[in-house]
């Protein structure tokens, strides 16, 4: 079994120098982040994923949807919340 780890693309918070671990905050991929996800999709186009796991953060789901629009995406990966704003 092979595992592929991909980090989400660049976000509006990256551009502001901010960190976020709250799924309720409006953190989304920028145009650069979308391009990064599309580049990952191109690089991984020949890989037959069984499943894609993402955290509950919208930017991770957005990245996963770009990387692979036609497979099951699960939000079973839960991050440890840091308690920071």
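Q: What amino acid sequence fits the structure above?
A:
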């Amino acid at each position: 079994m092979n595992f592929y780890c991909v980090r989400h693309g660049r976000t509006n918070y990256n551009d502001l120098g901010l960190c976020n671990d709250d799924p309720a905050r409006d953190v989304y991929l920028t145009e650069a982040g979308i391009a990064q996800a599309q580049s990952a999709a191109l690089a991984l186009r020949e890989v037959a994923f069984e499943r894609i796991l993402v955290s509950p953060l919208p930017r991770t789901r957005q990245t996963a949807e770009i990387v692979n629009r036609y497979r099951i995406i699960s939000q079973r990966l839960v991050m440890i919340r840091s308690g920071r704003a």
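Q: And what stands out in the fold?
A: The helical segments are 12-16, 31-43, 58-67.
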